[in-house]
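Q&A log
Question type: sequence-to-structure
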Amino acid sequence: MSSPRFFSDVPLTSNSSISLPATAANHAVKVLRLQAGDSLRLFNGDGHDYSAVIETIRKNEVIVKTGQAATVGNESTLKITLAQGISAGDRMDFTIQKSVELGIHAIQPISCQRSVVKLNGDRADKRREHWQNVAISACEQSGRAFLPKVGQATSLAKWLSNAPPFATRITLDPLASTRLQDLPIPQGPICLLIGPEGGLTSEEIAMAGSQGFTGVQLGPRILRTETAALAALAAIHTLWGDF
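Response status: OK
Response body:
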């Protein structure tokens, strides 16, 4: 049975003693019932896993001793950013969790005209922190040692005006005639833009098109926003990635 795996938000080096983050320490002791001498693995997003052994368990602290670093080679050759229209309830969490498992490189929450959830100020900061923690948990589970960044929520217009120079830009549009297999093989980073519940408006699709996004139909059926993201990522990996 493999050792449990935890994220650490501090720089990691071999043969050093560190405290586990509070969330990881609580899970290790109260959920997994780990004890001094038990083995585990740590990662901090630098592309490596670090073996570790629990040295000391105190009331509010778990001290571990790190061992050797091992390169984790399971990252996708595709650098895909998911620009996801913010959805309500658990849908956004589900989309982030599963897209991380599917190898997403970065996630950009987008406030769209049909987004039910409106975020600003402290609420936006708290949601971004929550979504980043969802991504961390998905990395722990899926074995990824690179941590996808979840960006600060912003409007579609503002994001489009400052979007990175993606080589391939795709918008899911049920009215489009183009399919994924009709597109040329990507020669660089990919951006996948998906609307919230109710999809993108025709105005938003046109706005994205003016910035180089190609509308693509993902089959003849209308998919929910969380289904669309995962189906598109799976199809992209099947066509051009590591599936």
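Response note: The first strand starts at residue 5 and ends at 7.
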